[in-house]
Write a structure and sequence with these properties.
The protein is of the alpha+beta class. The protein has a six-stranded antiparallel beta sheet. The protein is elongated. The chain starts with 12 loop residues before the first strand and ends with a helix.
Length: about 425
């Protein structure tokens, strides 16, 4: 058995569960293998979109999950937790290391008679516990029975009512599902414990013969056979024919109670959980996934440390320090008034820094650091002149004073006013 990797749209975390991969696609949605913080495995089912959009269905699922979570019984899968109000609704249950009865029979053929008897007793005990808790399974079929090395387990408790309310009909989701539904359920009536007795008889027929008591075919035809035809029980062990025939009667009032059915089963030969060799080998593969507790999660992979440069490779630290001081000095010396040249000079300085680092990297070890020019050749003379002008109070030309543009504008306005006044007097 191989765990299918998570897809791009699959969640990685749901509630406290870290998802490891996909197990299968069920009627409710995609079933993932999850791991809780304490290391225990769980089956985490993500409710499918065709179900999650309907608030009524989610309400029924919530009610069913709450009821299933309260039940603790042998041969019944325990529901651990659920969050059906989350953006991605989910239900978590105990992980069962084994295939469904349908998968096992399709791959390895019908079960041996002794295993069928053991299956009958175990499922009868499971359903009796369900009914004692005030619930009805109402969805027992070969897909909701899982075979493990320790025995069979009934799954899907609390889900059937919600699935019946889905607009996508149950028979479209599971092949031949109608053949395992009691006639009263197919008619839309509210089922009671006799509906589970019918499901048990139909499941035992499938386990022993590889087919349901009413064969296979279209849903409408199967529903008619369940209602009108006699079940086909050929191939059942002789000691199981009478109790199974009573269990699958069309009239629920004519079916035996679980207690009476349990007594009939106990009167026959004892069962044993001896499975075909191929199925036993498959269960061993499932056991690799389901040993009950996994190893702790691996820590996050740390970032790779930066590799140290080999001796003699790269810039010399002394030269790099000298170059850094020169760059800092040059940036501090940028004149405040030269706003138009500051950005260009800084860019030139950064470019020169890269060139200087490359130059020092090729210098011979022990050679003194050479001054590095960080400005273009033409800009060096202009910068020197600007510094000299600030120091001596001279600038622009030889000994000329720097004239403010505002002063020049004021002088021009004054001259224009005088000219205007003179012309007025002459006229």
């Amino acid at each position: 058995m191989e765990l299918e990797p998570l897809g791009d749209r699959d969640p990685r975390e749901l509630g406290p569960y870290h998802l490891r991969g996909r197990l299968r696609v069920g009627r409710l949605g995609t079933v993932h293998l999850g791991r809780s913080p304490d290391g225990l495995f769980a089956e985490v089912t993500v409710v499918g979109e065709q179900i999650a959009w309907d608030p009524q269905v989610l309400a029924l699922l919530t009610e069913g999950a709450d009821g299933a979570r309260r039940l603790r019984a042998a041969h019944v899968q325990r529901v651990r937790d659920a969050d059906l109000a989350a953006r991605t609704p989910w239900i978590a249950a105990d992980f069962l290391p084994g295939p469904s009865l349908r998968e096992a029979v399709e791959a390895h053929g019908p079960l041996p008679p002794a295993a069928v008897r053991r299956l009958a007793v175990a499922l009868a005990d499971a359903l009796d516990a369900v009914h004692s808790s005030g619930q009805v399974h109402r969805g027992l079929d070969p897909s909701t029975v899982v075979l493990t090395a320790d025995g069979p387990v009934a799954t899907g408790l609390g889900l059937a009512r919600a699935l019946e309310a889905v607009t996508v009909t149950l028979p479209r989701l599971v092949p031949d599902a109608v053949a395992y539904l009691a006639p009263e359920v197919a008619r839309g009536l509210e089922p009671g414990s006799p509906a589970d007795v019918f499901g048990l008889g139909a499941v035992l027929t499938y386990a022993a013969t590889g087919r349901g008591p009413f064969g296979s075919g279209a849903s409408g035809e199967l529903a008619r056979r369940v209602r009108d035809d006699e079940p086909d029980l050929a191939g059942l062990p002789d000691d199981l024919v009478e109790p199974v025939a009573a269990a699958v009667r069309a009239n629920p009032g004519e079916r035996p109670t679980l207690a009476a059915l349990r007594r009939r089963l106990a009167a026959g030969p004892a069962g044993s959980w001896v499975l075909p060799a191929g199925l036993t080998g498959e269960l061993a593969q499932w056991a690799v996934l389901g040993r009950g507790r996994s190893a702790p999660l691996a820590p996050a992979i740390p970032a790779e440390p930066t590799a140290r440069l080999a001796p003699g490779v790269g810039p010399d630290p002394a030269q790099t320090s000298a170059l850094t001081k020169q760059l800092d000095t040059a940036r501090l010396d940028v004149p405040r008034g030269d706003a138009d040249t500051t950005a260009a000079d800084t860019t030139a300085a950064d470019t020169a820094a890269s060139a200087g680092a490359a130059a020092t990297g090729t210098a011979a070890a022990g050679a003194p650091a050479q001054p590095v020019s960080i400005l273009p050749r033409g800009a060096q003379g202009d910068r020197a002149a600007a510094r000299a002008g600030r120091t001596t109070g001279a600038g622009g030309g030889a000994g000329g004073s720097r004239v403010s543009p505002l002063l020049m504008i004021a002088v021009g306005v004054a001259v224009a006013a005088l000219v205007f006044a003179a012309v007025t007097l002459l006229l």
